[in-house]
Amino acid sequence: MSDNFYSAQAGSENFAVVTNAAGKTITLVGALNFDTSNAKVVMMFDATALPSSGAVPLVSVPIAAAISATQPSPSSFSFPTGLTVQNGIVVACSTTAKTRTVDTTAGGNCKFLVVWK
């Protein structure tokens, strides 16, 4: 089975519906935070659309504030044996750690990379 990948093609974003196909196995999620004032939390959901605020993520990883406008902070997490989702893959930047809180920055603060089979 070959790998698929998602990467934002232009600019940054606050969330991405990576795939809404069931039974996919995630092997890597990476993100960049372009916000120089605030840390973010990258959240991954087993969903077909962006969950509402207050939703509990499947996985979350903190990401520090960017060093400067041209030096975003990176973060990533991998699943060497894979993490299979039942519904689909959605990633989002949150301003809080335990549940999703919408980052309403116009144009977004994050950029995502997701690899799955």
Compact summary:
With 117 residues, the protein is mainly beta.
General description of the model:
With 117 residues, this protein is mostly beta strands. The protein has a single domain, classed as Jelly Rolls, CATH 2.60.120. The chain contains no helices and 8 strands. It has strands spanning 4-7, 15-19, 25-33, 40-46, 59-63, 73-84, 89-94, 110-116. The model has no long low-confidence stretch (mean pLDDT 90).
Record keyword descriptors for this entry.
4-stranded antiparallel beta sheet; mainly beta; Jelly Rolls; 117 residues; single chain; globular
Write the layout of secondary structure elements.
Layout: E1 4-7, E2 15-19, E3 25-33, E4 40-46, E5 59-63, E6 73-84, E7 89-94, E8 110-116
Antiparallel strand pairs: 1-8, 2-7, 3-6, 3-8, 4-5, 4-7
What is the total domain count? Answer: 1
H and E order: EEEEEEEE
Number of helices: 0
CATH class group: Mainly Beta
Low-confidence stretches: none
The overall pLDDT average reads 90
Strand tally is: 8
| Helical percentage | under 10%
